[in-house]
Write a structure and sequence with these properties.
This protein is of the alpha/beta class and about 525 residues long. The chain has helices at about 15-20, 35-40, 55-60, 80-85, 100-115, 115-125, 150-160, 175-180, 190-195, 215-220, 240-245, 285-305, 320-340, 365-375, 390-395, 465-475, 505-515, and strands spanning about 5-10, 25-30, 45-50, 70, 90-95, 145, 165-170, 185, 200, 225-230, 250-255, 275, 350-355, 400-405, 410-420, 425-430, 435-440, 445-450, 455-460, 480-490, 495-500, 520-525. The longest helix has 24 residues, at about 320-340.
Length: about 525
């Protein structure tokens, strides 16, 4: 297992660090200015942050060795995920470690608003005793509108039901059946705004959720509504929320997250009708430990060659699929590489065919392996499941993938077919007993183990003495032959000869081989 060098640029719980330090070199350097982080990030394989460090495209581009960026928390809006994806860097988060902490803080704010806890506390500290000014409202029987039925939204719904609240929710990605299980009724956004006595948001900050609730939406709400945001700053328009509270258009609000943090001079703190807390949603001892452990566990999994459980920018690959696909990664790389060396020019079309048992699995992991083989040493970009589509698009490749579960030849086989403006070539391979075998070159069937080195590919007419003639020419160059295989369509017909070599042949030797009667083409490929 490779020993990674990991930078931790924000404070995380000791339990997470203790998991990593036996198997990685971990440097904890918090509070780094962007310029300092940029100077040292190139030395690290992985980076762990919370919400303080801004992982910009500039930082990511300077992280030449970065393989993974971990966010010890749910949101990743402080990480340029698109830039990481382009570089083939996995971004992982910890979506479950602080779920309960955020849920309980949401409920705490609902209750604090309803009973004027913060305002009454401030009044008493001034020496006042003004019970009449702080007459509250019960939440039993009230309607709670939840925007976003993710992990936190679901847990809030469960606890609100225990308080005998009526639950409605808006989430375009959730079915009514799913909502019914947790006791929520799905409604449109407009219905939620009009019907709710309390509205809580639990969505990430994206281009579509920025300013999700603004002046127009607040004008639709009841004047008795109370708004809660323990999700992300910027989801609710802060100026509009302040104006609505001060004008009496809403009964109050409670906000834990802000568009700019630290929020030392935020407009919301100037309203006595709004409770503000300094991003405490995940600030429990249990949550801090949970997110640190969750991120560390994913780092350890990736160090062992396994997929991360919560990769933000990569498809999930099930463990059983990973076990079946792993032996074929090398098959794909070598088939792609050999095919690229056989064809003339850049491919306009790449066709990948998965045949047999392997076609029954999600083959997401294999396409980037083919592209790695095709690109070879022509690119320094790390190609993986994260950025393969961007790499393909940038090069103008058209890719077609197809699956055939029935196979006449091998239990599982992968064929890579490249089409250029001049020709089409096809290379197929399989994996047997942990070894990669190339089993087809164009229309010719054969069986080549591909441990490395070079293969001399000779297209010729099958006739007596051909193998000996080729051996004579390679012998003149003191070239050592490791194996020789011949595939033919019929006796004394067209055939292909594959000759394994320890070293590449000089062009002079190839000219000699091409001059042998009956040989139409001779090419050396590196395996």
């Amino acid at each position: 297992m490779p020993r990674w060098k990991i930078l931790v640029s924000d404070r995380i719980a000791k339990e997470g660090l203790d998991m990593l330090t036996p198997k990685a070199d971990v440097d904890v350097k918090t509070g780094l200015p962007p310029e300092e982080l940029g100077k040292i990030i190139g030395d690290y394989d992985a980076l762990i942050v919370r919400s303080e460090t801004q992982v910009t495209a500039d930082i990511i581009n300077k992280g030449k060795n970065l393989q993974v960026i971990g966010r010890a928390g749910v949101g990743v809006d402080n990480i340029d995920v698109d830039a990481a994806t382009r570089q083939g860097i996995t971004v992982v988060n910890a979506p479950t470690g602080n779920t309960i902490a955020a849920t309980e803080h949401t409920m705490a704010l609902i209750l604090a608003m309803s009973r004027f806890v913060a305002q009454a506390d401030a009044s008493m500290r001034k020496g006042e005793w003004n019970r009449a000014a702080f007459t509250g409202t019960e939440i039993r029987g009230k309607t709670l509108g939840i925007i976003g039925l993710g992990k936190v939204g679901i847990e809030v719904a469960r606890r609100a039901r225990a308080f005998e609240m009526n639950i409605i929710a808006h989430d375009p990605y959730v079915s009514q059946d799913h909502a019914t299980v947790i006791g929520a009724k799905l409604v449109t956004m407009e219905e939620l705004l009009k019907e709710s006595d309390y509205i809580t948001v639990h969505v990430p900050l994206t281009s579509s959720t920025t300013g999700l609730i603004g002046a127009k939406e607040l004008a639709t709400c009841k004047k008795t509504v109370r708004i809660i945001n323990v999700a992300r700053g910027g989801v609710i328009d802060e100026q509009a929320l302040y104006d609505a509270a001060e004008a009496g258009k809403i009964a109050g609000a409670a906000v834990d997250v802000f568009s700019k943090e630290p929020a030392k001079d935020n407009i919301l703190a100037k309203s006595s009708k709004i409770i503000v807390t300094p991003h405490l949603g995940a600030s429990t001892a249990e949550a801090q430990t949970g997110v640190a452990i969750e991120v560390a566990a994913q780092f350890l999994a990736m160090m062992e060659g396994n997929p991360a459980r919560y990769a933000v920018n990569a498809p999930m690959i099930m463990p059983e699929a990973l076990g079946a696909l792993s032996p074929f990664v090398d098959v794909c790389v070598k088939a792609g590489s050999i095919a690229m060396q056989m064809c003339e020019g850049q491919p306009d079309l790449i066709k990948i065919t998965y045949t047999g048992e392997i076609a029954k699995y999600d083959t997401t992991l294999l396409k980037p392996a083919v592209i790695r083989g095709i690109l070879g040493n022509s690119s320094d970009i790390r190609v993986n499941v994260i950025n393969v589509n961007q790499v393909v698009q940038a090069r103008g490749y058209k890719i077609v993938e197809q699956k055939e579960t029935e196979s006449d030849h091998y239990t599982s086989m992968i064929a890579v077919e490249l089409t250029t403006s001049r020709k089409t070539v096809m290379v197929a391979g399989t994996s047997t007993r942990g070894e990669t075998h190339i089993v087809r070159l164009d229309e010719y069937w054969l069986d080549l183990t591909a441990p490395g080195g070079y293969i001399l590919l000779i297209r010729h007419t099958d006739r007596p003495g051909m193998i000996g003639a080729v051996g004579t020419e390679t012998g003149k160059q003191n070239a050592n032959i490791s194996f020789m295989e011949v595939g033919r369509l019929s006796p004394k017909g067209r055939a292909i000869m594959a000759v394994g070599l320890d070293d590449a042949l000089p062009e002079a030797a190839l000219k000699g081989i091409r001059a042998i009667p009956g040989i139409t083409e001779a090419t050396v490929v590196k395996v």
